[in-house]
């Protein structure tokens, strides 16, 4: 139940994504920003008995304002999902079912990559870019603002995500989001994408 939200342990060492994403960035992004969302959500749960018997997903789908933001940002649908979307052994072109699905939905990997870069690089302000599986089985690229996500907005099932809040890249790339996106492609966890596609 949501009464015991715990900060996710990263599935790799904090220096494992370097040189694309530095240890310092992970110390701030995971250790400070993500941790703060978890702390604030736990405080909200402690102060509201109505939240104490709900799962994290139920809180995210039924709340608004600060509680929603902290639930979505602290949950698997945003930051946890982002950490799993990255891997030290990731990057390159996808293999397996996700490669076939990308080809079927976008024509080829380069067209998919261009669509994802346009969504992530062109997103105004803070938010997220996502590859999702739509109800008809096709893959689509979508973006969401602030703490929102495809589950809340009913945009499809998340497959992978890229965090385009500035705290995800400012230490390493300052305000150069395109440079961060170019680095992000070296870390994409296609194994995670294949698991999500199959579930």
From TrEMBL:
Cofactor annotation: Fe cation
Gene Ontology molecular functions: metal ion binding; superoxide dismutase activity
Record carries keyword Chaperone: no
Manganese/iron superoxide dismutase C-terminal domain location: 94-194
Occurrences of domain Manganese/iron superoxide dismutase N-terminal (ranges): 7-87
Reactions performed catalytically: 2 superoxide + 2 H(+) = H2O2 + O2
Function per UniProt: Destroys radicals which are normally produced within the cells and which are toxic to biological systems.
Family from the record: Belongs to the iron/manganese superoxide dismutase family.
Entry protein name: Superoxide dismutase
């Amino acid at each position: 139940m949501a009464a015991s939200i715990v900060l996710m342990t990263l599935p790799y060492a904090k220096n494992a994504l370097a040189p694309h994403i530095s240890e310092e960035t992970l110390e701030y992004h995971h250790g400070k920003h993500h941790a703060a969302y978890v702390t604030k959500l736990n405080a909200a749960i402690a102060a509201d008995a109505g939240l104490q018997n709900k799962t994290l997903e139920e809180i995210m789908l039924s709340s608004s304002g600060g509680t929603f933001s902290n639930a979505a940002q602290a949950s698997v649908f945003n930051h946890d999902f982002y950490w799993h979307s990255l891997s030290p052994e990731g990057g390159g072109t996808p293999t397996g079912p996700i490669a076939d699905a990308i080809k079927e939905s976008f024509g080829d990997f380069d067209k998919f990559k261009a669509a994802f870069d346009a969504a992530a690089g062109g997103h105004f302000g803070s938010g997220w870019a996502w590859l999702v599986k739509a109800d008809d089985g096709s893959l689509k690229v979508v973006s969401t603002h602030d703490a929102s996500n495809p589950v809340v907005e009913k945009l499809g099932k998340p497959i992978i995500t890229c965090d385009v809040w500035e705290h995800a890249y400012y230490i390493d790339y300052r305000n150069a989001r395109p440079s961060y996106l170019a680095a992000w492609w070296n870390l994409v966890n296609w194994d995670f994408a294949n698991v999500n596609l199959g579930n």
